[in-house]
Amino acid sequence: MATSPKLLGWSPEAFWRTTAVEFEMALEGLSGKVSGASFISREEVRRIAAEHGVRPSLKSNPKHQVIGASKD
Questions:
Q1: Among 9, 14, 26, 43, which is most buried by a count of CB atoms within 10 Å?
Q2: What 8-state DSSP symbol labels residue 59?
Q3: Cβ-count burial of 35 within 10 angstroms (0-12 exposed, 13-18 middle, 19+ buried)?
Q4: Is the predicted pLDDT of residue 72 greater than 60, yes or no?
Q5: In this structure, are residues 2 and 23 in contact, taking their beta carbons and an 8 Å threshold?
Q6: CA 21/CA 49 separation, integer angstroms
Q7: pLDDT digits (tens, 9 = 90+) for 5-50
Q8: Residue 31 in contact with residue 38, Cβ under 8 Å?
Q9: CA-CA distance, 15 to 9, in Å (whole number)?
Q10: How many Cβ atoms sit within 10 Å of the Cβ of residue 23?
Q11: Is 1's pLDDT higher than 70?
């Protein structure tokens, strides 16, 4: 779906950099069925955060790698 030229037409790199919310929004736009509602509520995010605690971002690790990124 994401990389098909007849559908979204994204490059693999663009797909792998996309968040779940961005992908959902793109699919809604493609289908013309835009709900406007998020697939996860703020309350659910708060509950998950409280359950799992605060953790540092993986991007703060100096050795982190982005899948699909060039290694220039």
A1: 26
A2: G
A3: exposed
A4: no
A5: yes
A6: 18
A7: 677 888 888 888 888 888 888 888 887 776 666 777 888 888 988 8
A8: no
A9: 10
A10: 15
A11: no
> How many residues does this entry show for the chain?
72
Pairwise CA distance, residues 38 & 31, whole Å: 16
Farthest-apart Cα atoms in the chain, separation: 42
Q: Write the CA distances from 57 to 8, 50, 52, integer angstroms.
A: 29, 16, 13
C-alpha span between 5 and 12 (Å, rounded): 12
Please, where are the H alpha helices in the chain? 12-17, 20-31, 42-52
Q: How far is CA 62 from the centre of its chain?
A: 22
**CA 13 – CA 61 distance, rounded (Å):** 21
Helices (H) and strands (E) in the chain, counts: 3, 0
Residue reference for tokens 């703020």 = 42
